[in-house]
Amino acid sequence: MFSSSILLQILACALYNNWWPMLSALMYVLVPMPCLFFGGGSTQFLISRDGGGWIDAAKFLTGASAVGSIAIPIILRHADLINTGAMFIEFTSFIIFVFTVMCFHRASLDDEW
């Protein structure tokens, strides 16, 4: 599913002959980084109430990256750098990406995997 999200990113760029939408793909790379560096590779810390300096920083950076994934296409559309169709393709790509992350989180909660 992650590959279909990246494919939609490339399609949004190729259809409209404009490569600005690939800027939001940078956020797709940044979203899992706080989990890898501060959470030990697990998504379990995102739903826990336990705090601490690094865990709170990881939660903040994950949220900021997720908001940036939505905000970048909106800002690019507002600045007339991309078309409306490319913006909606970017949103569809983001929805697929979020669904992929949710499936990964659900699979990581199961002990049987």
Automatic annotation (TrEMBL):
It comes from the Eukaryota. Pfam families: Vps55. It comes from Rhodamnia argentea. PANTHER family: LEPTIN RECEPTOR-RELATED (PTHR12050), RH04491P (PTHR12050:SF0). This is Vacuolar protein sorting-associated protein 55 homolog. The chain crosses the membrane at residues 25-48, 60-79, 85-104. The gene is LOC115753897. It is a multi-pass membrane protein. Belongs to the OB-RGRP/VPS55 family. GO terms for biological process: late endosome to vacuole transport via multivesicular body sorting pathway. It is found in: Membrane. The keyword Zinc does not apply. Keywords: Membrane, Transmembrane, Transmembrane helix. GO terms for cellular component: endosome; membrane. Signal peptide: none annotated. Its main location: membrane.
